[in-house]
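Lab notebook: predicted structure, single chain.

Context: the supervisor wants predicted structures on file for every construct in the current expression panel, including those that have not yet been purified. This is the next one on the list. No modifications to the sequence; it matches the entry in the shared construct table.
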Amino acid sequence: MIKKFIKFIDKKVDLRKFIKFGITGILNTAIDFGVFTFCNEILNFDPVISNPIGQTLATINSFFINKNWTFEKRKNYNVKEVLKFLIVNLISISLTTLGMYIFNDKLGINKYVCKIPIFFITICINYFGNKLFVFK
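Prediction complete. Output recorded below exactly as produced.
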């Protein structure tokens, strides 16, 4: 079973694209955190308002960079592709929220410590979702 999983991963992961995806993720994280901090600290928005603004801008950035650079799908933009991208990101955000709820609220693990395993899980979800579903 493990050997089959490793063969599947080996066939599906393009290391070059995965590294580009990781670089894009770092940029998206910086955008999310920067916008959140700006809205929260400078504009004095409530964190409940600041957080989705940062995530939304990071997600928009993610779509354009992943489409054009990571997965090199420079064809015209279409509604189907955008909807697929939104589905993958909504799944990812939902699982992140569930993970925070379980690890932080139920198990009492520090919220910043919880983000570490959740971060790696969402990278995998987003990478495979984008590679196999959105930009295939």
